[in-house]
Amino acid sequence: MSIDKETLRENINLELQKVRKDITDLEELTKPISPENSIGRISRMDAINNKSVNEASLHQARDKYNKLEEALSRMDEAGFGLYVRCGEPIPEGRIMLMPHSRKCVRCA
What we know:
60% helix; mainly alpha; single chain
């Protein structure tokens, strides 16, 4: 398999920037909701629900960020480009779109 590692490295760095911005935005949205805010009871319940959804998104974004950083650090290892469980080569299209994916559909 011949992966263009420089292009992949650029793609990962661009994705890291995007995810970093998403994390910053989500951190802002997950700040505590002050009880002295003068919003109605229903609006407050809505805000609390939205905060929970944003917290889940923040967790996923941080997880993706960590996996992307890990993929970037593994790029020069001998086993890079192979699925971790079955050892099959990762198709170039998949590794370009999802460089943090380490398991094939069957193994996942």
